[in-house]
UniProtKB/TrEMBL annotation, chain A:
Its main location: mitochondrion. InterPro entries: Alpha-ketoacid_DH_E1_comp, DH_E1, THDP-binding. SUPFAM superfamilies: Thiamin diphosphate-binding fold (THDP-binding). One of its GO terms (cellular component) is mitochondrial matrix. The lineage of its organism: Eukaryota, Viridiplantae, Streptophyta, Embryophyta, Tracheophyta. It comes from Arachis duranensis. It is found in: Mitochondrion matrix. Its EC number is 1.2.4.4. The gene is LOC107470471. This is 3-methyl-2-oxobutanoate dehydrogenase (2-methylpropanoyl-transferring).
TrEMBL record, chain B:
SUPFAM superfamilies: Thiamin diphosphate-binding fold (THDP-binding), TK C-terminal domain-like. The lineage of its organism: Eukaryota, Viridiplantae, Streptophyta, Embryophyta, Tracheophyta. One of its GO terms (cellular component) is chloroplast. The pyruvate dehydrogenase complex catalyzes the overall conversion of pyruvate to acetyl-CoA and CO(2). It contains multiple copies of three enzymatic components: pyruvate dehydrogenase (E1), dihydrolipoamide acetyltransferase (E2) and lipoamide dehydrogenase (E3). Keywords: Chloroplast, Metal-binding, Oxidoreductase, Plastid, Potassium, Pyruvate, Thiamine pyrophosphate, Transit peptide. GO terms for molecular function: metal ion binding; pyruvate dehydrogenase (acetyl-transferring) activity. This is pyruvate dehydrogenase (acetyl-transferring). SMART domains: Transket_pyr. It catalyses: N(6)-[(R)-lipoyl]-L-lysyl-[protein] + pyruvate + H(+) = N(6)-[(R)-S(8)-acetyldihydrolipoyl]-L-lysyl-[protein] + CO2.
Length: 444, 403
């Protein structure tokens, strides 16, 4: 804290150090408590006085041995999972999911998978400029959304379109956004996959890494002030956890007791940087305790584990007014984006193995099939229908006009100021003078 | 944000800052009786209650107003109450927090400590520590928090303990605060106010003497205003809080203890309007924040030497009030800009470009811009004084300009 001499001298008479409140203790909910040291005479005995001291922050015990806390535990934090690789439940202590919800979850996971495949192909064909897939992380996307309610606000990074699909955002709307046409919610202003919809409580994706993490804390603070039965959730990757915003946001959330779920998709890669070059801690889950945040490590490819963990976290976040950190271990099967070829930095057979043997969608399918809720016919029907829908949506979106010129200048402010109106007129005049130099599919 | 002065009756005689006066311009300042109106962000303008004399008309005779003899018009028969600038900011803040429960404050030491400049003193006790939030030291993140809270319906005021610290928040301010309303297609709005003290103080060192308005001025989507008197501090604070756009309110470390009398009635100023401090004929001097007082001190000398400078406190740094400025340029044909920013890329540089582009035909001489040098602010008092534009330099510049 910086106080300059001048300021301090001027204001020192106004500073109030009257100790009319209880000494600070770790468990005290009061924020105005002073940090005055406890009077030593309140100790029970001289013996006690030798073993503890009360620095600001609370009492700590003395020990005569110099003990460094190791940089790592002998054992890594274990990972919570419900279904094994074959889709068999490991125990019976998980929250049961009804047939309706399970089938809906599975359909959405398949939708996400097919959507990614087709849009990726579309980019490769030059029909859209950019795309990033979620292949391998479908369970995290859909199961986490399924465990939340519509009132919980979502702050995504960019690899989480699943919650949008779960909440009813249509494939056509996805296509509109990817083609940046005039029906896009974002009015063509953001890159493909930067979805946003206030109707669905899903905040617009920004390309900046981890900036959404403090946003989620702010939103949780707002929900807490309004006493709403809702929390905020934010997603980020292993790479995002290195950003300063992540650390400060966790710290803030703990101090402010904000109802927020931090969901880290530790998929092993930040573009080409493996986690061994990203951090030297035991993943991201151990960082929670450092900030006073309750945390858990979950098998990110197990839809039921994610569902259970997020549901429990939501309950804790809202009723106990605390943040929760969930580290979902997974693997980024796809490339970072269409601008990346990950075979350049990892073996192609490793990618293939994760894609086939550890596919979260197939694993969940085994579980629902075993329950008698799904079968091959339903599978092929779903996949065919989705493919048709997607191809149709793409075709429709491709042929729709782009947003009008006005949308370059609207929404910079609530009402466009005169300088922007002038600039808009200038652009329009230029287009009128040189129509052949500008694209045709812009509505006037 | 309104397009400037659209919809105003064309028959009104505009003179000085009393633009909405419906009577012909009176001969002396102190006789002017008027109703104050504000231009709202939806381009409607509405009257605010009458009061006897209109504060900004009177001549400011002292460079930095001292306690007792702050103004000629400060007689005991005048209504209103006296307070210091930081108290005016607090008053504005308190009134808005009472009026709208969504308004909240976050920043370092703003809670029970009352803020390092006491702008938020007493507010935590009154409104609770959830509405006046003490944050850990992470400017980027609490600015981000404010943005997230704003997107979900709150109206946060984010205080930077010193404007310079907000350099750490640049990412959130530029990439998210300024952009998210736009990139979300208008779905999410960010009605935050980012405020704090900046400018060159008294030997605060280079890191605490930053002028951030020059770094922020390019960011699309934000508005910037600078207050300089208790009257406009309160009015701009209230306007900034009520605005739906993100607004950065620049305060100056050395102006917090300015004392002045402000009206008892509620008033809100326009964020896009400049303030006519002293009408004149010979030269237009454009300035803002602390330099206003250096200019007014120089004006005293200039008047004694026979010059008649027109002094405008531009107040709105983004966007510029080109209407008021243009009118003045058309009258005097000479422009001097006095600012505290550094020469390269400062507010003065942009203002010079804007005036040249728009009013080149009305200029009889090239625009002169007095700014600080492109150096970090030195600590030694004498050196520091020479990095800031002094009244003597302003007098010389006007004399040269008016040759």
């Amino acid at each position: 804290m910086w106080i300059s001499k001048t300021i301090f001298n001027h204001f020192k008479s106004r500073l109030n150090f009257t100790p009319n409140y209880a000494p600070l203790s770790l468990l005290s909910p009061r924020r105005f408590a002073s940090t005055i040291a406890q009077n030593p005479s309140t100790f029970n005995s001289i013996h006690d006085a030798n073993q503890v001291i009360d620095f600001p922050g609370g009492t700590v015990k003395f020990i005569p041995e110099m003990r460094f806390i190791s940089e790592s535990s002998p054992q890594r934090i274990p990972c919570y999972r419900v279904l094994d690789d074959d889709g068999q439940p490991l125990a019976n202590n998980f929250v049961q999911v009804s047939e309706e919800v399970a089938v809906r979850m599975y359909s959405n996971m398949v939708t996400l998978q097919i959507m990614d495949t087709i849009f990726y192909e579309a980019q490769r064909q030059g029909r859209i400029s950019f795309y990033a897939t979620t292949i391998g992380e479908e369970a995290i996307n859909i199961a986490s959304a399924a465990a939340l309610t519509r009132d919980d606000v979502i702050f995504p990074q960019y690899r989480e379109p699943g919650p949008l699909l779960w909440r009813g955002f249509t494939l056509q709307e996805i296509a509109h956004q990817c083609f940046s046409n005039k029906y896009d919610n974002g009015k063509g202003r953001q890159m493909p996959i930067h979805y946003g919809s206030n109707k669905h409580n899903y905040f617009t994706v920004a390309s900046t890494v981890a900036t959404q993490v403090p946003h989620a804390v702010g939103a949780a603070y707002s929900l807490k002030m309004d006493k709403k039965d809702a929390c905020s959730i934010t997603y980020f990757g292993d790479g995002g956890s290195s950003e300063g915003d992540f650390h400060a946001a966790l710290n803030f959330a703990a101090v402010m007791e904000a109802p927020v779920i931090f969901l880290c998709r530790n998929n092993g890669w930040a573009i080409s940087t493996p986690t061994s070059d990203q951090f030297r801690s035991d993943g991201v889950v151990v960082k929670g305790q450092a900030y006073g945040v309750r945390s858990i490590r979950v098998d990110g490819n197990d839809a039921l584990a994610i569902y259970n963990a997020v549901q429990a976290a939501r309950e804790m976040a809202i009723s106990e007014e605390r943040p929760v950190l969930i580290e979902a271990l997974t693997y980024r099967v796809g490339h970072h984006s269409t601008s990346d070829d990950s075979t350049k930095y990892r073996p192609a057979n490793e990618i293939e193995w994760w894609r086939l043997a550890r596919d979260p969608v197939a694993r969940f399918r085994k579980w629902i099939e075993r329950n008698g809720w799904w079968n091959d016919m339903a599978e092929s029907e779903l996949r065919n229908s989705l493919r048709q829908q997607l191809l149709h949506s793409i075709q429709v979106a491709e042929n729709i006009e782009k947003p009008p010129i006005e949308d370059i200048f609207n929404d910079v402010y609530d009402v466009p100021p005169s300088n922007l109106r002038e600039q808009e007129q200038w652009v329009k005049d230029t287009i009128k003078k040189h129509p052949l130099d500008y694209p045709e599919n812009i509505s006037a | 944000m309104a397009t400037l002065f659209q919809g105003l009756p064309s028959s009104t005689a505009f003179s000085s800052s009393n633009k909405f006066n419906h009577v012909p311009a009176p001969t002396s300042f102190s006789e002017r009786k008027s109703s104050i109106v504000t231009v709202r962000s939806d381009a409607r303008w509405s009257p605010v209650l009458n009061y006897a004399t209109h504060k900004p008309q009177r001549l400011i005779t002292n460079a930095v107003a001292t306690k007792a003899d702050s103004s000629l018009a400060s007689t005991s028969s005048k209504p209103g109450h006296e307070l210091l600038l930081f108290e005016a900011l607090r008053e504005g803040l308190e009134e808005e927090m009472e009026r709208d429960p969504c308004v909240c404050v976050m920043g370092e030491d703003v809670g029970h400590y009352g803020g390092s400049y006491k702008v938020t003193k007493g507010l935590a006790t009154k409104f609770g520590d959830l509405r006046v939030l003490d944050t850990p030291i992470a400017e980027n993140s609490f600015t981000g928090m404010g943005i997230g809270a704003a997107m979900t319906g709150l109206r946060p005021i984010i205080e930077g303990m010193n404007m310079g610290f907000l350099l750490l928040a640049f990412n959130q301010i530029s990439n998210n605060c300024g952009m998210l309303h736009y990139t979300s297609g208008g779905q999410f709005k960010i009605p935050v106010v980012i405020r704090g003290p900046g400018g060159v103080g008294r030997q605060l060192g280079a890191e605490h003497s930053q002028r951030l308005e020059s770094y922020f001025q390019s960011i699309p989507g934000i508005q910037m205003v600078a207050c300089s008197t208790p009257y406009n501090a309160k009015g701009l604070m209230k306007a900034a809080i009520r605005s739906e756009n993100p607004v950065i309110l620049f305060e100056h470390v050395l102006l917090y203890n300015l004392k002045d009398r402000i009206p008892d009635e509620e008033y809100v100023l326009s964020l896009e309007e400049a303030e006519m401090v002293r009408p004149g004929e010979h030269v237009t001097i454009l300035t803002y924040s602390r330099m206003r007082y250096h200019v007014m001190q120089a004006a005293k000398t200039l008047v004694n030497k026979g010059y008649d400078p027109e002094v405008i406190d531009i107040r709105s740094l983004k966007p510029f009030d080109l209407h008021t400025i243009g009118k003045s340029v058309k009258k005097t044909h000479r422009v001097l800009i006095v600012e505290e920013c550094m020469r390269t890329g400062g507010i003065g540089a942009s203002l010079t470009a804007a005036i040249t582009e728009n009013f080149n035909d009305d200029l009889d001489a090239p625009i002169v811009c007095l700014s600080s040098q492109d150096v970090p602010t030195p600590y030694a008092g004498t050196l520091e004084e020479w990095t800031v534009v002094q009244p003597a330099q302003i007098v010389t510049a006007v004399e040269q300009l008016c040759q």
